[in-house]
Design goal:
heterodimer, A: alpha/beta, Rossmann fold, 2 domains, three-stranded antiparallel β-sheet, 33% helix, B: mainly alpha, MetI-like fold, binds adenosine-5'-triphosphate, binds magnesium ion
């Protein structure tokens, strides 16, 4: 088998708290390959954000190993991240936020304007480059955050409840855009609380158990990735069956 | 520093009106003759004094050798130099303090100690060390100006939202990138609040600085006039210092708004 993008082997994580350590995650074994869209769901506090922080390199596992493309992860290398809040830099305009990301990604100055335009276009905000970050809606801000995370063309994209703060309609529209972010080279790990969102986006859903999170269900989602309109897909019997399966697993771990 | 927020808008009209009302009250007090004119001259006398002291052909070259404008220029140059170096020292020291907790632990008591001293108290020391020329006057203002900037900068740097720093690192920023593109811009508004305080402190210390061989400045004029009981000249000096101070503060406030239009919005 080809080298996985992400590999977690025997990973456990505990946070140091004042009195006792808090076991947050694991033990956990998990592999994510290119082309996979892995969606992680689980009860609140089951360690989903912790999992992403381990993979992005912001946190080291207490035991076990995390590898991204065969190496210990380093923030900003190979991995892009989108957080629940857009975290755009308000001291820069929309285009400037993406330009800075391109600079950090090592893109030469003369190539940046074109890449900024292409990235803005990709998230449907071609006209908004000059706006200040507070002059666009929450959904648009999150699109900019996605464009910014894509600037470095990361092999792996991590998204932690990126749509949690958005209204239902904006959320569905963004889901349709994000669904196509995987590619031959790229994988996505996406965290959500919404079972619908999970089944719609994923090629594979992992349900984590209650704290400390372990894999309670690892379910492939064999729904078509293209050719079927989103509404039709969401209304299909296959979709409903998969959703039922994930929801049942979630109920079981929460009980 | 957070309590020193710039207000959204302060209409110019309101400010002008306030000055007019104060002048009217002043004039009324003078007209009521509670005190003899030597003790409290009116706005009109101060105005006449301004005209006289601005006339370089009046036989004494304005007032005691220089016009008000020349004196103001000399003092502003001192304030400008002192504040500029003070801000430079303050920002650099503040950055280091904010980034290195150890440096902060060592430097903070020292900075706070300096801050508590009235400038006149260390002027003597500066005069002994550096003589009575221009340097000790500027040094005095530097010493007066840098602590508020250092304190504000250190606080701003430690207070930078970690979420921004993490976002930057997730985008591949190194230490220099985080410093230049996140920490500095995020701290800029608070640093500028420190600069406002610093320039204010420097300006209010210029009179102290000019007590030793500084007769050519506006503070020197006030001290000289005090010696001869020329109340209207003293008042003229105070008004000139106060008004220019107000102008400078307004300019810094405008700069702060221009540099950080996002303040309070993100
Ligand atoms: N910095 C920290 N220090 C101590 N404990 C922490 C820290 N961060 C998280 N935890 C604990 O670790 C556990 C897992 O947290 P985590 O944020 O990964 O959960 P989550 O699955 O993302 O939850 P949610 O769905 O609410 O976002 C929780 O019990 C939490 O309280
Ligand atoms: Mg979380």
């Amino acid at each position: 088998m080809a080298e996985p993008l992400v590999e977690l082997a025997g990973v456990e994580h505990r946070y140091r708290a004042r009195k006792a350590d808090v076991p947050a995650l694991g033990p956990l074994d998990l592999r994510v390959g290119a082309g996979e869209f892995l969606v992680v769901v689980g009860p609140s506090g089951s360690g989903k954000s912790t999992l992403l922080r381990l993979v992005s390199g912001f946190e080291r596992p207490t035991t076990g190993v995390v590898r991204v493309l065969g190496d210990a992860p380093v923030p900003g290398r190979d991995v892009g991240a989108v957080f629940q809040q857009p975290r755009l830099f308000p001291w820069q305009a929309v285009a400037g936020n993406i330009g800075t990301a391109l600079r950090w990604a090592g893109v030469p100055r003369r190539d940046r304007p074109e890449r900024i335009a292409a990235l803005l276009d990709q998230v449907g905000l071609a006209a908004l480059g000059k706006r200040r970050t507070w002059e666009i809606s929450g959904g648009q801000q999150q699109r900019v955050a996605i464009a910014r995370a894509l600037a470095a063309r990361p092999r792996l994209l991590l998204m932690d409840e990126p749509f949690a703060a958005l209204d239902a309609l904006t959320r569905e529209r963004l889901q349709e855009d994000v669904r196509s972010l995987t590619g031959e080279e790229r994988g996505v790990v996406f965290v959500t609380h919404s079972v619908d969102e999970a089944v719609f986006l994923a090629t594979r859903v992992v349900v984590l158990s209650d704290r400390p999170g372990r894999v309670a269900l690892d379910l492939p989602i064999p729904l078509p990735r293209s050719g079927v309109p989103a509404d039709e897909l969401r209304g299909s019997a296959d979709f409903a069956a998969l959703r039922g399966e994930v929801a049942a697993a979630l109920r079981a771990v929460a009980a | 520093m957070a309590q020193n927020e710039p207000r959204r808008t302060r209409p110019v009209l309101l400010r002008v009106a306030a000055v007019a009302v104060l002048s009217a009250i002043w004039q009324a007090l003078v007209l009521a003759e509670f005190w003899p004119p030597v003790v409290l001259p009116g706005p009109a006398q101060v105005w006449d004094q301004l005209l006289a002291a601005s006339d370089s052909g009046n036989g004494q070259g304005g007032y005691a050798g220089s016009t008000v404008a020349e004196r103001l220029g000399v003092s502003l140059r001192r304030v400008g130099l002192g504040s500029a170096y003070g801000v430079l020292v303050g920002v650099v020291l503040g950055l280091v303090m904010g980034l290195a907790p150890l440096v902060r632990a060592v430097a903070e008591p020292f900075v706070t100690f300096l801050r508590a001293l009235p400038p006149l108290a260390y002027l003597s020391l500066l005069v002994i060390w550096f003589g009575i020329d221009e340097e000790p006057k500027v040094y005095l203002l530097v010493v007066a100006a840098f602590p508020p900037v250092a304190v504000a900068t250190a606080a701003a740097v430690t207070g930078v939202n970690r979420q921004y720093v993490e976002a930057a690192r997730a985008l591949g920023a190194g230490r220099a990138g985080v410093l230049a593109s996140v920490v500095l811009p995020a701290s800029a508004p608070e640093i500028l609040t420190g600069v406002r305080l610093a320039v204010g402190v420097a300006y209010s210390s210029v009179v102290a600085a000019e007590t030793v061989n500084g007769a050519d400045g506006i503070g020197g004029m006030v001290l000289n006039a005090q010696r001869y009981n020329q109340t209207s000249v003293v008042l003229l000096g105070l008004v000139v210092i106060g008004l220019t101070g107000l102008l400078i503060d307004t300019a810094i406030l405008a700069l702060q708004r221009a540099v950080s239009p996002w303040r309070g919005r993100a």
